[in-house]
Amino acid sequence: MVKQLKTVNIKGKQYVEVNERIRHFRENYVDGAIETEIVSHVEHPQTGKMVIMFKATILVGGNIVATGHSQEKEGDGFINATSYVENGETSAIGRALGAFGIGIEGSVASAEEVQNAILQQSQPEPVMKFPFKSKAELNRTIKSLCECYAHRDQESLDEIKSELDTAQKKHLASLLDSDDYYDAMPARELLDMLKNGVKE
User: At residue 122, does pLDDT exceed 90?
Assistant: First the structure.
C-alpha cells in the first residue's frame, strides 16, 4: 500500500512539501534519479540582482519521465535574501516530481512555492532611488555629455565618467535609450561614448 503524503494547509488548500515528494520518489522508484542543472544565471538589468533558472529532470530506469523549471530572484522574499540558488533548485525538483504525478492532489505547485509566492506578494515593490542629487544635476550631466559629443572631447568625457557611480551610469543609459531622448539628441552615440569613449 502506498503511503499517503503529508500535506500543509495554506489558505484552506492542501499542498505537499518538496521533501515529501522526494521521499516518496526514493521509496517507490529504486532505479530513479533526480538531476538538476542551471539553465541561466544572470544579473537583472534594472535591479542589479542575480536571477537564476533551474531545470530538474526525473529519470526512471535511465529514461526521462518528467522535467520541471523554476526561476528565482536574489533578494525576493525572506528565503531568497540568502538562499535564492538553493530555493530555485528545490522548486525545480518539486515541479518535476509534480509533473511526474507525485503530490499533486491539491496542486502541482509545492507548499514551499505557494508560501514563497504569498510572501513575495505581501512585500511592496522596491522603489528605485534617484541616483542624482537633483534633476538639475542630471540635466547638467546630460548637457556635458552632449558637449563632449559635439567637440569629440575625450579628456572631458573621461572626467565625467570617473565622477559617475554605477547607479548613475545605469540611470543615464536607460534615459539615453528611451524615446524621450532618442529624437532630441544622438542618444545611441552618446550612450556608446559613456560606455566606450569618443570614437575618432
Answer: no
Residue 3 lies in a domain: no
Kindly report, residue by residue over 166-175, the tens digit of the pLDDT. Answer: 777 777 777 6
| Structural domain span for residue 166 | 135-196
Q: Which of 70, 96, 122 is the last residue of a domain?
A: 122
124-162 pLDDT, tens digit per residue, is: 555 557 777 887 887 788 777 777 766 777 787 778 778
Helices (H), 48-110: 77-99
Sheet of 50-60: strand order equals: 32-43, 50-60, 63-73
Q: Are residues 88 and 154 in the same domain?
A: no
DSSP string for residues in 97-140: HHHTTSS-SS-SS-HHHHHHHHHHHHSPPPPPPP-SS-HHHHHH
3-state helix, strand and coil shares in percent for the chain, rounded to the nearest 5 = 50, 20, 30
C-alpha 101/C-alpha 103 separation (Å) is 6
Same domain, 91 and 146: no
Q: How confident is the model at residue 44 (pLDDT cuts 50, 70, 90)?
A: confident
Q: Is residue 19 part of a domain?
A: yes
Number of compact structural domains in the chain: 2
- Residue 74: which H helix or E strand, with range? none
What does DSSP assign to residue 42? E
